[in-house]
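Example record for the data management plan.
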Amino acid sequence: MRNLIFIISLALLQGCLSSSSSSVSAPSDNEGSQTPPSTEESPGSGEVVQNPPPATEPPPATEEQASSCDGVDCNYCANDVEQQFNDAKDKLHWSSFSWEFTWPQPYPPNGVTPKDIFDGAESDAHEFNIPDKHIQGFTRTNSARFPYAGSHSHSSGTQGGVFVIENNGGKLSLSSLHKTDASHPSGVHILGKELVYADKVGQKLVLMDIDSPNQSQKRSFTIEQPLFGGGLGIAKTDEGKYLLITTGPGGQQSGPRYNHFYELSATGLDFLGSSQVAIPSDWEGKFIFSENLSVLSECDTGAIYTVHSTGDESGLGIINGNGYWRLSKMEKNNGEYKLVAINKFKTAQDISDCSIRAAGMVTVNPEHQLEFYCHGYAKEPDGASIPFLGDVLGPPKDKNKDSDNFLFKRGDL
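Corresponding structural encoding:
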């Protein structure tokens, strides 16, 4: 009976995907390089990726743009965060990208292979045999050579990982792969030239120098009262201090959620306090959940904003459902910190190239505009994007080939 239900569910899913349409523009030549295809549709709107877009990257920032944020601890500020977020509700233009890797290849700095980290075929799976091990976070960095990085969870009792992607002449490919102490590291965030994430079941904050050889230079700090399952983010305040915000627990089980606030200095992390997550009573309940957290600073005002993101995580929704984005503004009164929810919207998610449940993230580009990111959920080296669902989500990879790629999307205003 269980197998029959599974077969019927897959048939319904295949019918839903085949009935929807998409319009992806063909690549065009730009001084001899390919421009990745893009679509005006919301991500995960039902398009089936038959031919993944080339592993390409937009041109790097101009010298003038780059010089406006050349500090080792600098992130770009965003113009009018609330207006941009509100515009994103219906004005995002989504572009598709991919990055390549080779399953059996040992990657620096310690010879870890993608099979050690990315292999998604496990017995401990969600419904429809979707694995528990998946992309956990993904972000754009401030490095021209290493423009993207992310984290990946793993089965309980084994080590997860952090990965860094290199831009080599417009081609994106895996550059380094690092095992974490924990099976489930946090999502990732960027502060200047350092990638920031929590490890060791949240007891350790790690800052990795993106531009160091093979990203081998790291420093770490002990986290008091660790709580990061709902995301982690950091920003430099207008006072010149470094504010770390974490949220947890993650997932979508019932119960309260909390935000923790810390100040990072050269000597360690100082716990500043916590507040309970709250949303307006007329908002849909799922907006209180979170898997990833983006921390943004606003130009001119210096105000700190956060964007929490998650997506449907059960039933067919995890494959082709909704993603949830929540904007909050940080307030500090009498030494107490809290995040006040002020806006929200939904976008569609797609497990193959835009899982907001796994990796919804917001960054700021050199023009001080918000960029929204999402990433494919998981991979399996024997062919299908997701175990046993290859014929539904696209043709299986040639099993005789070791090369593979992950897909991701960027939403621009």
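Summary line stored alongside the record: The domain at 73-412 is CATH 2.115.10 (Tachylectin-2; Chain A).
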